[in-house]
Structures are given as C-alpha cells and as structure tokens.
Amino acid sequence: MNGIYILANDYVYHQLVALLNSIEVNIGQDMPVCIIPYDDRLDQVKAEVIRRPQVTLFEDQDSIERWEAFATQAWEAHDRAQKEWRDRGLPETYRLAMHRKLCCFDGPFDQFIYFDADTLAMGSVEPIFQQLERHSWVTNDYQYCSDVKYIFDASEEDLSKVFTLNKLNHIFCAGWFASKKGVFTADILEQLLHHLRAGEADLMALWGPDQSLLNYMVLRSEISYYNFAVRGEATGSHWSSKFDEIEHVLYDKGRRLTYIHYMSVASSKFNRLCQGIAVEIPYRDLFLHYRYLSDPTQKPVSFLPETDKISATNFGAIASSIASFIKRKNGNLQHKFRRLKSSLS
What we know:
Elements: E1 2-8, H1 13-26, E2 33-37, H2 43-51, E3 55-57, H3 61-76, H4 79-87, E4 111-116, E5 119-121, H5 126-132, E6 137-139, H6 156-160, H7 165-168, E7 176-180, H8 186-197, H9 209-221, E8 225-227, E9 244-246, E10 249-252, E11 255-256, E12 259-261, H10 267-274, E13 277-278, H11 284-291, E14 304-305, H12 312-344
Parallel strand pairs: 1-2, 1-4, 2-3, 6-8, 13-14
Antiparallel strand pairs: 4-7, 5-12, 9-10, 10-11
C-alpha cells in the first residue's frame, strides 16, 4: 500500500489542515495519510484525524523510542555537536523530535512519500511512486545546488575520505522525500552507527540535525537513489521562487509543481495569519485557500496590522479584564436602578 506521512502536532495545526486539504484536492481523496506525532500536543490533530477517514495517527511507541534512541546514539558520537549544544544550554540531541520522521520506515505503507507540515501538495505523485519501483530513495528538490555545509560541515579533504563528489551531488532536503518500508535494515543501521562512532559523525552539520543524519544514512548506505531535479525533470518547490498561480495551483514556467515547501518560514507566522493578523508570507492567499477549504466561513476576511498583533496570552488577559469591567458596570447600573426604584416608591 502506498501512502503519505506527515510529522505534526497542534502547534502546526493550521498548516496541517492546509496540507491535508491540498492532498485531497491535488493528489486524491483516497490517498492514505499517517500523521507521526511530533510530541504529545495532539488534541486538535486527533480531532482532525476523526474527521478524515483516510487519515490515521501513528501510535507505535516502540518505533518512536527506537528511532529516537538511534538518533541519540548517532549524535552522541559527534563531540563537536555535543559541546556546541551543551554550551548553548540545548538538549544533548538538538531537535530530537524531528528525527521521529524516521518512523516512516516502520509504518503501514510499503512505499511512501514524506511531507513536512510546512508544505502544500500541488500535483500528482504518481511519477514518484513509479520511480520507487526501481529505486529505494526518491527526491524532487535542488538542495544539491546549495552549499554542502548545510548538510555536511567538514573540510573537502575529510568529506572525500567518505563520499565521492558524485555522492555529494545527491544531497537533499529532508522536508520531502520518498522511500520504502524497512529500507534501513538492522544490519545497515548497525554499520552506520559503527562508522559514525569511528569519527564520521563529525562530518554532519549541527543545526538541521535530522536533515544531516538522514542525508548521511542515505549516502553512506548507498541505497539506490533518484532525484528528479538532477535529471532536469523537476520544477522548483521552494517558496522563494516565482511561480504562477492558476486556480489555486502553482506552475513553474507552465509546468505544474508537485509541492511547495515553506521551509524556514516560522509556524508562528501561519498561526498569527489564521488569527487575523496581517502577516506577510509567500503565496498567502494560496495557503488561506487550502487552510479554510472545508470551512470557508471561518476564513479571516480582514486583518489587523502586524504591529497591532496581540499574543494569545495577552489576548486572554485583555478579554478577562473586559469581562470584569462589563460585570462591574452592570452591577453598578443594577445598584443605581434599585436606588432609583426605591426613591420613587
């Protein structure tokens, strides 16, 4: 069975709803989706799962613990990362929950595509699944055109001891990829940990740890790999590119996108936007269209200037103060009415 995985919690609820709606419209209503929990903040996520028969919640706690343990062991071997994170007061495995996306390899789907919650589906994924018939790993992005230091932060000499230049041309963004269940066997994982502990962990960049580790796993294990972008068969997918929007779908020079990725755009911006704050994000109207596709009456129609934004905490305090004020004024009016009534009788 084919399917889609998403890593999410209630904090990215608005983005999750937009992504699910875009999958239903642009990929298919029957496409199975499994949400991997980023953490235990899941009340809104669980309610959304109940509303959508094709969506499930990943609940294999053993798998979550196993992959978190693997990631922890991998990063414990990285002395430089441990020192940097410790000096900054960060956990011993920075952004450990992001590594839960590795649960994809244990889930219900034989072949799958992983979407970060900050993406929107724009087109068919059938070509992706077709490539998975011939390859173990499929990507569709231009990360390989970026500086390798965002993935592997080491000297060219040290990198060349482990990876050929051709291998390094296969780096990818970990926010969207396709693969197969069980592609990393126990033997492969043990070998990877052996290499990492032998000093190769120090090759990995520190500040996008799930992306660095996943790239290392794919390139070092030498599983078969296909990137549509390297073959010249991919559109752009990053929000910073200029795309044409036609009927709520994005096109790159006439070619329909497979997805758009809001990588590095803070989730807090999407949350404020959905609270009615005039936040500027790329393709804002497109996001709002998919976010409120199932409930258009809830879509904000006017927006407060961002400089006037009120945090949820402050808003609650202000609302409480207003309620108290109204209650006091009402009590005063009732008291004056009673006094007036008494004087007239």
